[in-house]
Design a protein that fits this description.
about 100 residues; about 35% helix; about 30% strand
Length: about 100
């Protein structure tokens, strides 16, 4: 039973500016991220908004069924390992925002 104040899912919105010469490596990184996240309880999906018009900005929407399951993935060893390889692919820092949706 869902109560009105509880969201149906949590979405982690991640924005990455990728180095132009690292786009192929980043695409491989994305596939691994999706596979890893799918192994966690409550995983729903990952939507990828790819760059347009020659840009190199990606936006990822990672959805879990609740905040606890999302936090479990965020603080996992698997994600920490993936994050360690990410810095070499980006120009600048990643931006993260958490959103609820009822």
């Amino acid at each position: 039973m869902n109560f009105p104040h509880q969201p149906d899912h949590m979405t982690l919105v991640i924005t990455h500016g990728v180095q132009r010469d690292k786009l192929a490596d980043y695409e491989c990184w994305l596939e691994t991220l999706k596979t890893d996240a799918a192994r966690f309880p409550g995983y729903q999906n990952v939507n990828i908004l790819r760059p347009v018009h020659g840009e190199t900005i990606y936006t990822l929407l990672v959805r879990f069924d609740n905040i606890d399951n999302l936090y479990q993935w965020i603080h996992s060893d698997q994600r920490e390992i993936r994050e360690a390889t990410l810095a070499n692919l980006l120009r600048g820092q990643e931006y993260i925002e958490m959103r609820t949706q009822a």
